[in-house]
Amino acid sequence: MELLVSAINLDEAKAAWEGGADILDVKNPKEGSLGANFPWIIREISDYADNKIIVSTTIGDVPYKPATVSLAALGAAYSGSNYIKVGLYGPENYDEAMDVMSNVVKTIKEYDDTITVVACGYADAYKIGSIEYDMIPKVAYDSGCDLAMLDTYIKDGHRLTDHLNKDQLAQFTKAAHDYNLKVALAGSVNANDIEMLKEVDCDIMGVRGCVCTGGDRNKGTISADLVAQLKENI
Ligand SMILES: O=C[C@H](O)COP(=O)(O)O
């Protein structure tokens, strides 16, 4: 299982890499769970990574606006991202999610077909009216994505496992793997979740809060030591 660590700037990205992260995820918590960061931040981290480590980028908890989201995805790709993560917040159903993701895939694959496109749903979709979590693998496959992911939208301390149990997560990863998609799981997960994530055959564990000082994803900063402690248990 790979470790994805969400960083907000170059210093945090360096700490994540130093701690052993496999994927540097560029994010901006001020703009939401999968909040988009600025192009120059993405470019700075991508240049530093120098193709020696995967750089993923969240382009937001997106609205149901396929063209707007496609433009954002292209901006992230142009800024040097290897993975483009789309938070399917606005789309409420399969058709709307397909409309967004199929246009993002078209945009990205025409620009650079080596870039990985990630369809990310929310374990707490039932609270926010977004497309249900268990639709994400089919949306990802049918739209031509490479990876299916779940995160949590509301970062109030409730965790992935507060919304979905182990069987539900196992069904999610099986559905995605049956589509030959990789799976990433996130949502305030921590070291206590590693065994379960492995048992449900998760490919990528995504974290921020648990590797930030004070455990605070907003006020804390990424600690290389905390990343290393997490990584050694994976
Ligand atoms: O993709 C990574 C997740 O958004 C990490 O955030 P979190 O661990 O603070 O919930």
UniProtKB/TrEMBL annotation:
Reaction(s) catalysed (UniProt annotation):
2 D-glyceraldehyde 3-phosphate = 4-(hydroxymethyl)-2-furancarboxaldehyde phosphate + phosphate + 2 H2O
- Which Enzyme Commission numbers does its entry carry? 4.2.3.153
For whether the record's keyword set contains Lyase, the answer is yes
> From what superkingdom does this record's organism come?
Archaea
Q: Name one GO molecular function term.
A: lyase activity
InterPro entries in alphabetical order: 4HFCP_synth (IPR007565), RibuloseP-bd_barrel (IPR011060)
Keywords (alphabetical) are: Lyase, Schiff base
The residues responsible for catalysis, as annotated, are 27 (schiff-base intermediate with substrate), 85 (proton acceptor)
Broadest EC class assigned to this enzyme? lyase
In terms of NCBIfam families, this protein maps to: PRK02227.1-1, PRK02227.1-3
This molecule's function is given as: Catalyzes the formation of 4-(hydroxymethyl)-2-furancarboxaldehyde phosphate (4-HFC-P) from two molecules of glyceraldehyde-3-P (GA-3-P).
Official protein name in the record? (5-formylfuran-3-yl)methyl phosphate synthase
